[in-house]
Amino acid sequence: MDIVLSVFVVAVIWRILCVQYQRGRIALLGSHLSGLQLERHMETLTQGYTRAISADTESRQLQVLETFAQTEHAVAAQVRTLADSMQKEGEQAAGMGVLRACVPHIERFRPALTRDLRRLLQIHADGLRHVVDNEKNLEPKDRAFCLLAELYLFQHSCHWYCKSRGVADARLMLRHKVDYQKVLDSVSDVTRPAYLKWLGG
């Protein structure tokens, strides 16, 4: 009975520590997002692209996609603004654990098991700008599909930083019905190798 009670107490304390730690992460990232309209723009694009990609005819796809040009440029610019803003933070504040579960303050006692959000946001900013500017001259539908993957991966990174890698994977599947590996396979050739290098440390 004492063992069960001890395990329960430890689990409760651990959960409290995780919640407090995650709230701090959410507040920090939120402070850099304040004044930006990234969430609204991303919702507009993800919903619009999904509608366009599933359109019956190519002409209808193009018609829908053309309406999002201004929002695409706004998203690319604001992700760059976020990436630049986060450079002001220190190494520990920007550290994110590579383990699937949340380990509070892992960046302090096991920095080798963390990666730098500041660098990751720069990767996302470069990748989004590359696709928005269509430097590879992709067809409109292919470009929309690639940009959608870029947005999903960026969102995944934000959830990972604020919660955990496991939660980010689960939210990606729950919200968008796509798994992490599929998203990673679908981003641009600018984003993927840089991201994999970042992930490998």
Give the topology, please.
Layout (H helix, E strand, L loop, with lengths): L1 H32 L4 H16 L4 H8 L3 H18 L4 H4 E3 L8 H4 L4 E3 H16 L7 H23 L2 H12 L3 H7 L4 H10 L1
Antiparallel strand pairs: 1-2
Helix pairs in contact: 2-3, 2-4, 2-8, 4-7, 7-8, 7-11, 8-9, 8-10
Features:
201 residues; mainly alpha; two-stranded antiparallel sheet; 11 helices; 2 strands; 3% strand; elongated
The pLDDT mean sits at 92
- Give the uncertain stretches in residue-range form: none
Number of strands: 2
Number of DSSP helices? Answer: 11
**Fraction in beta strands:** under 5%
Given helix and strand content, the structural type is mainly alpha
Strand order of the largest sheet: 1-2
End-to-end separation: 44 Å
In helices, the fraction of residues equals over 70%
Query: What coarse outline follows from CA principal-axis ratios?
Result: elongated
Order of secondary-structure elements? HHHHHEHEHHHHH
Radius of gyration over all CA atoms, rounded: 19 Å
Describe the sheet with the most strands.
2 strands, antiparallel
Describe the structure in your own words.
It is a single chain. This protein has helices at residues 2-33, 38-53, 58-65, 69-86, 91-94, 106-109, 117-132, 140-162, 165-176, 180-186, 191-200; strands at residues 95-97, 114-116. Strands 1-2 form a two-stranded antiparallel sheet. The longest helix has 32 residues, at 2-33. The chain is elongated and about 70 Å long. The protein has 11 helices and 2 strands. Helix 2 crosses helix 4 and helix 7 runs antiparallel to helix 8. The N and C termini lie far apart (44 Å). Helix content is 75%, strand content 3%. It is mainly α.
